[in-house]
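Re-run with default settings, no changes from the original entry. Doing this only to confirm the output is reproducible before filing.
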Amino acid sequence: MKKWISIISILFLPVFTGKGQEDLLDMLEASEEPITNYTIATFKSTRIVSGHSIETNAEGVLQFLIGHRFGRLNSGWRDLFGIDNATMRMGFEYGLTDNINLGIGRSSFQKTYDGTFKWRFLRQK
């Protein structure tokens, strides 16, 4: 008889211990606050070719940018295939906070100055 009791208890022991662990795990998960994971580095830079991306500089980061565009390739050897007609832009972008950037720049095309303000008010989860 004792042999049957020990066999039955061995068979049902995992069922009872598993239920107790699930209850404790449910209590632990209920007490935790949900963690929001934000997407980072969707793009590797604050710029995509000549346009802006959704990224901003971190707080206190100063970025120096140089952009250039060549002239027409079919202008031939005389204009060195567009290199003589190239325009360029130099600028600085500074991260005031992780979500706000300010920038200034100057272009060689008509010697124009520009300023930028970028505010990231939404983030992808």
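The first strand starts at residue 47 and ends at 48. The chain has a mean pLDDT of 80.
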